[in-house]
Amino acid sequence: LVSRSHKSEDTIIRVKHAEFGGTSHVTIAGPCSIESREQLLTVAAALKNAGVTVLRGGAFKPRTSPYEFQGLGVEGLKIMKEAADEIGMVSISEIMSPSQIDTAARYVDIFQIGARNMQNFELLKAVGQSGKPVLLKRGLSATLEEFILAAEYILYNGNNQVMLIERGIRTFEKWTRNTLDISAVPLLKQETHLPVLVDVSHSAGRKDILLSCAKAALAAGADGIMVEVHPNPQAALSDAKQQLNIDEFDTFWKGLRHSGLFK
Ligand code: PEP
Ligand code: MN
């Protein structure tokens, strides 16, 4: 169902005023985790002002250690809805279990399935039945075939509003958190009809090369990018090293928009 041989034309997913896979690029930006009302509203206002349409922020956080910040849960989703409605943005947040679907559906526009849950098959089936748009992240060590088949689960279960996002894979390289597999972009575009995005923040795990990674993503044919932005990254409760502050985001954003690649 996801393959180009099944459907040759590009799938365009419209969520409120955002369009994925259409004629213009889409940017998803926001903090790694929703930490407070003030934090999210501050960053949302700056992003909206810059022209970003989709606001991200995690409420259910998949953390490596159980001692790390686990997210604000439903409280966080309520903050997300308030910020997105007040500022006029489309919202996206991660869900980790089928049991979170009904609640999360009341507060967010798009469900994110994180890298760690790319092959959580019960979750894939459940979001398939939910009818909400889904952003599916590539697993930490998933091949493109496994990634595509994970998306197939969602379509097979009745939901064709699926977007794919490359977020770097595990390799021996340590200078980046993950290795951005840029070849995934043309391959996913060639093999599927779904929108394809690139998460530069989780790929690189550092701030200094994000603009180059984003330009590479657009040059390779991506339909958009994801980038983490926090009003005060040093104090962030997760992913402090890779989140841009608002000034850094403005520089990044101008660089990308003036690159001649952004449409
Ligand atoms: C995220 O985007 O919030 C996240 C946890 O990323 P990933 O699942 O790609 O690690
Ligand atoms: Mn993060």
Automatic annotation (TrEMBL):
Q: Does the keyword Transferase apply?
A: yes
GO molecular function of the protein, one example?
Answer: transferase activity
Instruction: For this UniProt record, give its keywords in alphabetical order, as a comma-separated list.
Output: Transferase
Q: Which domain of life is it from?
A: Bacteria
Q: Which GO terms describe its biological process?
A: aromatic amino acid family biosynthetic process; chorismate metabolic process
Q: What is this protein called?
A: Bifunctional 3-deoxy-7-phosphoheptulonate synthase/chorismate mutase
The organism's taxonomic lineage, starting at the top: Bacteria, Bacillati, Bacillota, Bacilli, Bacillales
